[in-house]
């Protein structure tokens, strides 16, 4: 299978953009036969929400969302108009939010940021779902294994 790409041009702004991006991603994953409601799909949707929300909070909203599906995984790219790269803020249990980069570190296979004048593109890569009938973690076999 060759890489398949989907692009959603957003043009900046923040109203309803997270929902639009999640819906766009959900449709693409369904077209690519990712199991709906599975952990792999939920991880993708959560991270899309996080990176798009960060663009809304810190960069005036995303310009575009690009999904690149290839054998073995998915690459998500969100481009905005701010040249400032994402930076973690110190944990503060008294304030909501601030956990997006921690989630990306834990759930994504990798992530980063590249200049995309006038702003940047934040990207992340996730593994694809396990083949049907296989557990995501081969070491998680039950006692009857």
Automatic annotation (TrEMBL):
It holds the Pfam family HATPase_c_2. Residues 25-124 form the Histidine kinase/HSP90-like ATPase domain. It comes from the Bacteria. InterPro entries: Anti-sigma-factor_SerPK (IPR050267), HATPase_C_sf (IPR036890), HATPase_dom (IPR003594). Residues 72-99, 118-145 are annotated as: Disordered. The keyword Oxidoreductase does not apply. Keywords: Kinase, Serine/threonine-protein kinase, Transferase. This is Histidine kinase/HSP90-like ATPase domain-containing protein. It comes from Streptomyces lavendulae subsp. lavendulae.
């Amino acid at each position: 299978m060759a890489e398949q790409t989907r692009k959603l041009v957003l043009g900046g702004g923040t109203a309803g953009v997270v929902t639009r991006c999640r819906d766009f991603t959900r449709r693409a994953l369904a077209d690519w036969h990712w199991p709906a409601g599975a952990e792999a799909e939920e991880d993708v949707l959560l991270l899309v929400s996080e990176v798009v929300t960060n663009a809304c909070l810190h960069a005036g909203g995303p310009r575009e969302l690009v999904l690149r599906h290839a054998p073995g995984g998915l690459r998500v790219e969100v481009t905005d108009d701010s040249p400032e790269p994402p930076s973690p803020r110190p944990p503060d249990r008294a304030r909501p939010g601030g956990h997006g980069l921690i989630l990306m570190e834990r759930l994504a296979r990798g992530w980063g940021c590249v200049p995309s004048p006038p702003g940047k593109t934040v990207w992340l890569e996730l593994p694809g779902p396990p083949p049907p009938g296989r557990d995501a973690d081969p070491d998680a076999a039950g006692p009857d294994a």
